[in-house]
């Protein structure tokens, strides 16, 4: 089990990352950013595992693809808004 202080500090990091990445920090967005970051890391560091998971859980893969698309779109919108 993680120490409570560490868990809170990690959550603060995720909140700031979410804010910088997509301009939102609500709980739903933070959970999607966590899933996106973890899946992306796994897909890059262990592509065979990600491929196996995708084949084992095709519905979850589709949901993950929707999350990835949503994060990408929000990131692009946030970057455009930040340039103004």
Structure classification: mainly alpha
Taken as a percent bin, the fraction of beta residues is under 5%
| CA radius of gyration | 15 Å
How many angstroms does the end-to-end distance come to?
A: 44 Å
Number of strands: 0
Q: In which range does the helix fraction lie?
A: over 70%
Number of helices: 4
Subunit arrangement of the protein: single chain
Order of helices and strands: HHHH
- The biggest beta sheet, please? none
Shape: globular
> pLDDT average, as an integer?
96
Low-confidence blocks of residues: none
Q: Summarize this, please?
A:
With 84 residues, the protein is mainly alpha-helical.
Structure description:
- The chain is mostly helical.
- 88% of the residues lie in helices and 0% in strands.
- The chain has helices at 4-22, 27-45, 47-56, 58-83.
- It is globular.
- The mean pLDDT is 96.
Give the helices and strands, then pairings.
Layout: H1 4-22, H2 27-45, H3 47-56, H4 58-83
Helix pairs in contact: 1-2, 2-3, 2-4, 3-4
Key traits:
0% strand; globular; mainly alpha; single chain; 84 residues
